[in-house]
TrEMBL record:
Record flagged with keyword Acetylation: no
Record family assignment: Belongs to the DNA repair enzymes AP/ExoA family.
Domain Endonuclease/exonuclease/phosphatase, first and last residues per copy: 4-262
InterPro entries cross-referenced by the UniProt entry: AP_endonuc_1, AP_endonuclease_F1_BS, Endo/exonu/phosph_ase_sf, Endo/exonuclease/phosphatase, ExoIII-like
Protein name per its UniProtKB record: Exodeoxyribonuclease III
Lineage: Bacteria, Bacillati, Actinomycetota, Actinomycetes, Mycobacteriales
Domain of life of the native organism: Bacteria
Length: 271
């Protein structure tokens, strides 16, 4: 089976590119992030015309995740137990761990054929001194606790935009990120805690490029200069990781007119 993950940075803006990519790449399962649309406005009919069912968590113009599958969808979860909430409408952005605030549309899980899949859009964090950074760490810890049993139940993947570069080699110049999020020890420790559940980071090769970055800023010609980051990750349980036959970053999907600032990560598995 072919699994892919892609932060599309608005499924509405990217819909023609998405449909073309689905028809060309032919993934059995595609996890989307930053769809920026409500559940009702999600292009369910358009992807269904290509043979895909949709599991969607959305909330208007922010966040949003989905799982598209042409091999079945079951046991759909549009959040996870203990997910912290966030209220961005208060005078000072506030993290809630007591059920107040809004549980953002950042995670959707589904069973697709033999594989349990989660599509994740991890909070950005903004900057290490911002409340959103504490929210990011709390979110990752809550997700780790929520999936502990699922990881050992069978082939399992948690994929998506983690907004964390796991190592210094996963950014074009770590010195450029001094004092910024995405590379701090606490964020990387949160990823390590996920891996300690029995998950491994599936390495991907880059098509036509030596460095498998998955994100490039729109500004300053970052893509053409290859000033990128690897923040779109595939974390797989042992049975899923053992089934991987190929994995690559489809850098070509970042080219052309009106692309997302992320490229898809594609994984082939023999399940």
């Amino acid at each position: 089976m072919r699994l892919a993950t892609w932060n599309v940075n608005s499924v509405t803006a990217r819909l023609p590119r998405l449909l073309d990519w689905l028809a060309t790449a032919q993934p059995d399962v595609l996890c989307l992030q930053e769809t920026k649309t409500s559940v009702v406005a999600f292009p369910t009919a358009e992807v269904a015309a290509l043979g895909y069912e949709s599991a969607v968590a959305g909330q208007g113009r922010w966040n949003g995740v989905a799982v598209l599958s042409r091999i079945g969808l079951a046991d759909i979860a549009t959040t996870f137990a203990g997910a912290p909430s966030w209220d961005a409408d208060t005078a000072a952005d506030t993290l809630f761990t007591d059920g107040a605030g809004i549980v953002e549309a950042r995670a959707v899980g589904a069973t697709c054929g033999p594989l349990r899949v989660w599509s994740l859009y991890v909070p950005n964090g903004r900057e290490p001194t911002h409340p959103h950074y504490a929210y990011k760490l709390a979110w990752l810890e809550a997700y780790r606790a929520a999936i502990a049993d699922e990881v050992t139940a069978g082939p399992f993947v948690a994929v998506g935009d983690y907004n964390v570069a796991p190592t210094d080699a996963d950014v074009w110049d770590v010195a450029a990120f001094a004092g910024s999020t995405h590379v701090t020890p606490a964020e990387r420790d949160a990823l390590a805690a996920l891996r300690e559940l029995g998950l491994s980071d599936v390495p991907a090769r880059a098509l036509k490029n030596d460095v498998p970055y998955t994100y490039w800023d729109y500004r300053g010609g970052a893509f053409h200069k290859n000033l990128g980051m690897r923040i779109d990750l595939v974390y797989a349980s042992a049975p899923a990781a053992a089934a991987v036959t190929d994995a690559y970053v489809d850098r070509d999907a970042r080219k052309g007119t009106g692309p997302s600032d992320h490229a898809p990560v594609v994984v082939d598995l023999d399940l």
